[in-house]
Each structure stands twice: as C-alpha cells, then as structure tokens.
Amino acid sequence: MAAKQANSFAALPAGAKIFLLFAGLGVMTAGYYGGFHMALEDETASAQRKHGVLQQQLEDAHERQTEFLKLREELAGREALDQQNLRILPVTAEIPAFLDDLNRLAELSGLEMANVQPAPEVGDKFFVRVPVTLSINGGYHQLAKFFYNISRLERAINMEDIVLNMGKGKGATAEEESIRLSVSVRATTFRRSESK
C-alpha cells in the first residue's frame, strides 16, 4: 500500500507536489512554533522580566550601600566630635580632676596655692557652672604663666573676678626682693546640664 501511495504522489502534477511540500513544511513549522518556540519565548520573556527586577534591586542595594557608608562615616565623625566635646564640657563636674589640674598648673608656674573653695553649682539651660574660688600667691610672670597654662587645657575654664593685691617678696638681698602678688580669682568650669 505504501508503494501505491508513492506512485500516487509521483503521479501528481509538480504544482500539487510543491503545494503538498509547502503544506507539510507549514504544518511542521506551526507544530514547532506552537509546541517548542512559544514555550522558549515565554521563558525568555519571563527571564528578562526577572532580570529587570533583579537589576533594579541591585541598583537599589548599591544606593542603600552608598547611603549606609555615608551615614556610617558621618556617625564616626559625630562620635569623634562628641568625644572631643565631652573633654571640653563633661557630663559630670569632675571636681577632683579639675582641682588637680589647677594645683598642678599652679605648681608648674611656681605659684603657691593658699586656699581653694568650691562653690555651689549654678544651673543654666544648656550647661551648669561649677565655680571654685582660689587664693594664689606668687610673682606677676608666674601668674601670667598660670593663666596661660589654664587656657591650654581642653576643658572650658573661665577665670573671673580677679583681685590683685601687691606686697613685697622676701629675698636675701634687696635685688632679690620682688613684688609678690596675692591673687583672689574665681575659676569656673562647666558641665552639661541634665536632659529632662
């Protein structure tokens, strides 16, 4: 029967054979397109959409990373600034350290600390004043050196209400006698006020 069908195909005119060939190719192409190519096209479109979403997520992640690094750097800068500010304006009065600094600088300057009297703290909106009244004896240049050394401390300190009294110093000869000063001064440091 196959031989009969082959003979019947051979008996067909050339136009019919070409038509059947194109029809067969059309059916095979339609089958390929519908069964295989459409599925690949859908997968490709889906993969492209997924790639677009992932690309957008990656760009968002890079933007967030850049922002994070910028904020981390800003935070580190602010923490360093806050540490520096804590040395200038501490949270607590730290009176013993403050008095040690004053006494050490008076000795380095060659002054004699006669009296030290801490006074009550005075509150303000953003800071609290911590005053200490000092009585110091020494020469003019020693006093200038003391004030200069006070100004070099990291902590904020004001020297206020300075009262100078002159007297003669005692020396072995008249040339060694110098003018001695008896100084009364209020040294005021500051601390942060308590947040409410």
Distance N terminus to C terminus? 106 Å
CATH superfamily of the largest domain: Ribosomal protein S6/Translation elongation factor EF1B
Tally of domains: 2
User: Which topology of the largest domain does CATH recognise?
Assistant: Alpha-Beta Plaits
Strand content is 15-25%
**Global shape:** rod-shaped
Number of helical segments with 4 or more residues: 4
**Secondary-structure content class:** alpha+beta
Q: Give the beta-strand count.
A: 5
Radius of gyration: 47 Å
Q: What is the string of helix and strand elements?
A: HHHEEEHEE
Features:
alpha+beta, 196 residues, single chain, 5-stranded antiparallel β-sheet, Alpha-Beta Plaits
Structure description:
There is one protein chain. The chain is α+β, with helices and mostly antiparallel strands and 196 residues long. It folds into 2 domains: 2-64; 95-192, Alpha-Beta Plaits (2-Layer Sandwich). It has helices at residues 2-10, 14-88, 95-109, 140-151; strands at residues 112-118, 122-123, 127-138, 157-168, 179-192. Strands 1, 2, 3, 4 and 5 form a 5-stranded antiparallel sheet that branches.
